Amino acid sequence: MKKWLDERDIEVRTAFKMTPAEQPLVLPNFPHAHAAIYFDDPDGNSLELITFLETDPTAAFQMMSFANWSEEKRMQGSQHTE
């Protein structure tokens, strides 16, 4: 998402106190979660691009960057293979 926006000279904006560098971010939306990135279109409208994520519906978590979420998922996966 970031690459696509960057190629079009569209800047990601701060959202939920998460800077552009911390986005996309992962928002819990029990029992699901989604990754999101926020930006303004050329007319100044605020837009959100989202994608739903596969998560453990019984696991609660706080909002975090997609990078941190990915790392947690990777670590959880490696614990299951040991």
Give an overview in words.
The chain is of the alpha+beta class and 82 residues long. The chain has helices at 2-7, 66-81; strands at 25-29, 32-40, 46-53, 64-65. A four-stranded antiparallel sheet has the order 3-2-1-4. It is elongated.
What's the helix count? 2
Strand content: 25-35%
From N to C, what is the helix and strand string? HEEEEH
Shape: elongated
Strand order of the largest sheet: 3-2-1-4
N→C terminal distance: 33 Å
Instruction: Give the structural class.
Output: alpha+beta
Number of strands: 4
Unreliable spans: none
In which range does the helix fraction lie? 25-40%
User: In this structure, how is the largest beta sheet organized?
Assistant: 4 strands, antiparallel
Instruction: Give the rounded overall mean pLDDT.
Output: 86
Query: Cα-atom Rg, whole angstroms?
Result: 14 Å
